[in-house]
Amino acid sequence: MLTGPTRKKRMITTLLVALALVAGIASPALGQPAIAGMAGGVPTLAPVLDRVTPAVVNISVISRAPGSSNPLYDDPYFRRFLATDIALLKVEATNLVALPIGDSDRVKVGDYVVAIGNPFGLGQTVTSGIVSALGRTGISNDGYEDFIQTDASINPGNSGGPLVTLDGRLVGINTAILSPAGGNVGIGFAVPSNMAVAVMNQLARDGRVHRGRVGIAVQDVTPEIAEALGLGDVRGAVIAGVEPGSPAQRAGLAAGDVVTAVDGSPVHSAAGLRNRIGLTPAGTSVTLTVQRSDGLRDVSVRISS
After folding, report:
1. Is the pTM for the entire model greater than 0.70?
2. Domain boundary, last residue among 154, 173, 206
3. If pLDDT is split at 50, 70 and 90, which confidence band does 107 have?
């Protein structure tokens, strides 16, 4: 096993972080993966591994006995899913304390968070801030976006590091900053932990991610669409089209339906719905809550690949 039992201890004294190295030589701009209680590996970002051939992993401990050194592990295994930037890095190590995984769906704007990483080669750096916004999209060209925005200082080298709550639970994987000059200006982004978990579980089990689909085209509910459909303040994703013979058509979904929730979890945008469906394994049945002119109804749809 990659990780030992998850232990509820203070983050600063127990966090273990892994740094990908090239033949033992670090680059200051490389990212810093986070050891977390996920299925079979260490979550990080695919671009971090794209810049290196990870021949050695150095396990650094924020708090360790004086005179002790960091263990090295050779030939780590990794897999990646570029549509979310998430990658799986695995080393055959034991007795590592893992970060407990938080539920990113419960994160709220204004929550305090801490970013940990290796900015400019200054390892084991901790910065703090708040959650500035949720559900950010349009940040990259990748297929699945649902970023947590934070003003915690994130710089080159923080990529792939953990974003955690004050009680030490991982709620995001730091991924990008918005900056004309390339430095921190208080606008950073993290992949939510729930998205990372969905990707990691499939990478660990299958070595790849199978994109789920139901055969619908969706768009955001704009004020104009809401007025035209008489939706009031309903939020969600409106179905613009249904593919003939698709799971959506077989389930009775139609253009004009507004999806407001998936398995009881609210849908706030078209991107959010695409993320939920796309990262759900094929063969899984989900319940879509749909707003129609005659009211709300639940529709069961089986995800295909």
Report:
1. no
2. 206
3. very high
